[in-house]
User: What shape does this take?
Amino acid sequence: MDQVLHGTNYQALINPQTDDEKERAGILREKYKLDPVHMNEVDDEYGPLEWRLPEAHTIYWATLGLKRAKKEQQITLRREIYQPLQLAFQRGRLTEITVGTNKQYQVGPNLAMIPRANKAYERMMAEDPEFRDNIATAHRNFMKDAVYFLYTHNRRSEAEQWMKYLIAKYPDATAYDARNPSKPPQKIADLTVDDYCVARVTEDISETSRTRVQQAVEGFLINSYYSLAIGEDDEGTANALFAEKIWARYQKETEKQKGRIGLPPLDEMKREALRLFEQNYPPLLMNQLRTRLGLPAPAGVTTNAPAANAPSGAAISQSGQAATKK
Assistant: This one.
């Protein structure tokens, strides 16, 4: 499948010229039963989709069914579009990671599909007024995720733009902040993009649960190191900034009880996260991170990795700890 569907060139599959293109087109049609013409149509309407993941195939067959379905069958097929569409957005980016001689794959959010997916939701609501409210619920959740994911991937201006769209489209949309369980959900229209996104990540974190907040901060820091190690600089920088915002907001809200339930200093948490990263990831990946950040190799260890500049937004403190530029 990787050979046929990775980096899909629709024209080469629709009108193959070379022997390799003809072989790939044959496998696509005969083995996977996929028509590249319809694949191209689906991608233009909903994508870009990753055809090596199942959600793209669900959408493919549902859209094919819509062309033949009776009116009473259409809502079922539309569900088979807008529900996988949400998943394709949340985990529809496939990243190939090579550590030494090992190749692995990691899924992540497919931010590139936000504009087309949004139009697809709008179109489905217009075409099916009877079930408009059902589709609107999925659309609203999609938009809330879009704002959050853009923000956490260091694309703040786009997050702000889509948040304005979300508020205009769904002025009563709310967000729940579990740190304030006595308060009702807040209207997103009354929040800044920072407040909304920090509230999202703390939905299941109690304000008084120091341990859970600390785990969340460490998790974002570890994700930051991982992203930097594999060359995803923007995502790495965004995760580090997000960890800092969660830490700062918690410290502010617990200021009067800092001695009892306050978090450790942020630099200390960064050192701990780096230690955990080193414990839980392969040495080759840790070496890649050291190279990316300019950290010295451990005593007695040498590396042939080429020198690399630290990514934009990252710096090294005097203690050798990775830090984020202000």
